[in-house]
Each structure stands twice: as C-alpha cells, then as structure tokens.
Amino acid sequence: MDRRWWRNRMIRRFQAAATATVLALGILPGPVMALSPSDGGLVTLDPVVTINASTGDQFDPHVSGNLAAYTADGNIRYYDFVSGIDAQVTGATGAVDNLSDVSNGKIVFSRLDSSFNQSIMVFDTVANSTNEIDPEVGGSQRTSGAIGSDTVAFIDYRYNLAGELVASQLGVGGTTTRVTSDGRYEQFPSVAPLGDLVVYASCLASPSNCDIHQAGWNGSSWVITALTNNADPEANADSDGVIVVYDANRSGERDIYWQSVGGGTEQRLEIAGAQRNPSVSAGVVGFESIAVGETAAELFVYEIATNRSFRITSTPVDESLNDVFVLPDGRVRVVWASGATGSRDVYGATFTIPA
C-alpha cells in the first residue's frame, strides 16, 4: 500500500469555495534513460531496530538524523536512535493525529479535532512544545504536512475542493504563502532538506492521475515547474535537493523514475516486477520492490553514483512506506512499516554501503 492511499483517506472530507489565478508552468519534456543496476546483494544491518511492534497499527515512518517519527493508532510517536527512547507527542482531547514528517528535531503532522477541523501542527522535540502553524479563523482544512529545515508545506482545502499548495516558514517573522492558485488537485508535498524546494503531485482532472511538479524558492517567491506532463499517473515524489524521485505506472508497469531538480533527462530504474514509494537522501534511493509472481514487497536501496542496488529485507510479509536518510558519516539509515494493513510494525536500520 502506498502513501497516496493513506493520505487520500483524510483529504476527501474537506471542501471550501475559492477563486483561482492560473500560474504559468514550465513544461520540460525530455528523453527517458533506463538503468539496470548491479545487484549488490543483501546488506549487513547494524542491527535491525524494532521501533514499535506493539498491538495496533504503526505506519508511515519518516527519519531525519537520529530521529524517526510515525503514526500509531491516532497518535504521533518518535524514536531516538541514540537513546533508544520511543515517546508520544502529547495529543489533544478528542483529536486524532496522523501523517507526520520530521526534520532537524521538528515533527510536523495533521491534527483532526472533534469538529472536523484539520490543522497542521509542529512539535519541537528540544523545546517539548507543540504549536499550530498559522491558525485560521473559523478552523482549518489542511493536511499532508511535510517539513525540510524550517519550511513546512501542506495542502489547504479552504481555497477550493481540489486543494492548493501552501508553504510556511517557521520561526520569528516566518510567513505563510499560498504557492499554487491553479485549481488542480495538489497532493502529497515533500520538502527538500534545505527547505528551498517542494515537490508534489499535481493532477489536472483526477486525483488518481497526476504529474510531478516542483516549487523552488528563488529568494523572493516560489517558482513552479512541471517535471512531467503526460497521460501516465505519477506519484510519491521526494527530493534531496539535487534530484527528484517518483514512481509511475507506464505501459502496465510501475517503476522508479528520477530527474535533476528543474527537469532534464528522465531516468528509469529497470528492475523486474513492480517498484513503488521512492525516498531519497544524498543520492541514495530507498524503495519497495514486488518480485514477479509475488504480492509482498521487500525493501531495497539504490546508489545512483555507482548504479548498484542492495536488498534490505527478506521476510514473508509486506514492507511498506519507507524513508531513507544518509548520515554525516556516510552511513545510511532507513525506516519502514512491516506487515498487513491494520497490524503493521515500524522498524529501522543503519548500514554502510559496501565500497
């Protein structure tokens, strides 16, 4: 199961009336280059960490440095890889918290209250404080929060039924800016580590058939570029600030694609079976792969610079919703959910890619 399905469960309930101003989109079509990676085999993990295998459903983990955040039965929890402590973000009475992201010790997530207002919240793990981003009079209709550095991106449904992309800067004097005004279905933003780039799915007529767009900060405004523009559905975009990765269904096959920030030659990872849910950090791509004839996915990473893939898991259950982060010392840290929907567990691992 991919992130689109889980997040679509939350965004369908929101509606609002709005006017829209159409933004000019730069379309950058280009050739596609297929790459067949060398098989690096099963890597040695140091070791696999059971972050949360308690009763219930734990899923959608994200990692930044030594901190991982995830959803656990209507709450947001976070795990410290150094201390081994797993804690819960304090919730609000009658509210449901879900769909988190993490960067530099801050966790952003959606909070749905008993009046069906949905707000974007930020929890600071150092200050141990939770605050709502730019509260709206009359309540908010926001979801899909993502964070990179001090930039938080989310989708706001008070503008129109399709939702528009909004970016907010944290800290004193931070501003909240409406990035899109096009009436398209904007979905699932991801913010690059430096906070100056947002990648997201943008859908013209149907929320299930999207293109990949990016919004780059030029010092004074957000500049939008369409990275894909075709009839095939693309989704699950992520960026490390250098490349943009995503998956796409083309010719009946789901594969991992990437291209440079701003567009250019599109690369395709050529592996048998179906690949989904890419995440990227410092040129290392995490993804899930379902072998031909199988139904459960295993977790892999791909190193772009050396064109090598490495297998992370080998289990009989489905691995899903991975995230990857390359540490300053070059080690790779991954987190993922494992098991059937409704009873998943969250795991993490750190390893060194072989020379």
Task: Describe what you observe in this structure.
The protein has 1 helix and 31 strands. The protein has 355 residues and is mainly beta. The strands form 7 sheets. A 5-stranded mixed beta sheet has the order 1-20-19-18-17, with helices on one face. 3% of the residues lie in helices and 54% in strands. The longest helix is centred in the N-terminal third of the chain and has 9 residues, at 3-11. It starts with a helix and ends with a strand. A hairpin with a 6-residue loop joins β30 and β31. It is globular.
Strand content: over 45%
- Terminus-to-terminus distance: 33 Å
Name the overall outline.
Answer: globular
Q: What are the low-pLDDT stretches, counting only 5+ consecutive residues below 50?
A: 4-29
Biggest pleated-sheet summary: 5 strands, mixed
How would you state the average pLDDT, rounded?
Answer: 91
Q: Strands across the major sheet, in which order?
A: 1-20-19-18-17
Count every beta strand, where a strand is a DSSP E run of 2 or more residues.
31
Rg from alpha-carbon coordinates: 19 Å
Range of helix content: under 10%
Give the count of helical stretches: 1
